[in-house]
């Protein structure tokens, strides 16, 4: 059994360790640390899955879509990680669902993710290209996805996603 809650100061070291265990390099852990130290951080949207210890983490942070009518604020889901010995037990899915519920509660209308195309569509994500949203770098079309938390909220919005400097480490 596990619970999901907002990260606390005491979790920070373990969040780094979970990211380093789940990913090959240290880039994702550095992304979490750089985002936490930036104005793009939303404390309520850094969530941990906890048993006796932190076994999973998900982060949503403020990013923007550059459109020909100006910049539109949105959220980026990145990164998310579950400790390898706890993967494929539903923890990642629970983190996404609780994260999206919190995003909605805070009034955010859409989310962008670059990730596994076999994983995120089950939560409603679809290729961003279908909505006229483009990545700022070359990437497989089906891996760059968006979700309208509020249905129709991306209607009339098209452009290129801009990631803040914290993302330079990944
Ligand atoms: C991706 C990840 C967060 C999912 O967490 P989880 O607790 O294992 O997820 P769940 O148990 O809820 O769901 C498992 C699903 O994740 C999918 N998944 C996990 N790793 C995957 C991968 N590398 N590629 C594609 N799908 C993957 C599986 O297809 C599985 O789907 P299934 O239920 O149809 O078999 C976790 O596997 C992880 O930390 N992976 C390494 C880091 C990573 O890739 N992070 C995501 C970057 S987009």
UniProtKB/TrEMBL annotation:
One of its GO terms (molecular function) is acyltransferase activity, transferring groups other than amino-acyl groups. Keywords: Transferase. Residues 2-150 form the N-acetyltransferase domain. It comes from the Bacteria. Pfam families: Acetyltransf_9. PANTHER family: L-AMINO ACID N-ACETYLTRANSFERASE, UPF0039 PROTEIN SLL0451. This is GNAT family N-acetyltransferase. It comes from Paenibacillus contaminans.
């Amino acid at each position: 059994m596990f619970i999901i809650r907002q990260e606390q100061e005491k979790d920070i070291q373990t969040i780094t360790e979970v990211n380093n265990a789940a990913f090959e390099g240290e880039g994702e852990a550095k992304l979490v640390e750089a985002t936490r130290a930036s104005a793009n951080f939303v404390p309520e949207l850094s969530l941990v899955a906890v048993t006796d210890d932190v076994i999973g983490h998900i982060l949503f942070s403020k990013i923007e879509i550059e459109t020909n009518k100006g910049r539109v604020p949105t959220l980026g889901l990145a990164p998310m990680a579950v400790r390898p010995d706890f993967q494929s037990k539903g923890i990642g899915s629970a983190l996404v669902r609780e994260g999206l519920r919190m995003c909605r509660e805070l009034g955010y209308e859409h989310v962008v993710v670059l990730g596994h195309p076999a994983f995120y569509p089950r939560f409603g994500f679809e290729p961003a290209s279908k909505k006229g949203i483009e990545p700022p770098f070359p990437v497989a079309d089906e891996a760059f996805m968006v979700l309208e938390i509020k249905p129709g909220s991306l209607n009339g919005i098209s452009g290129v996603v801009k990631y803040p400097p914290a993302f330079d480490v990944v």
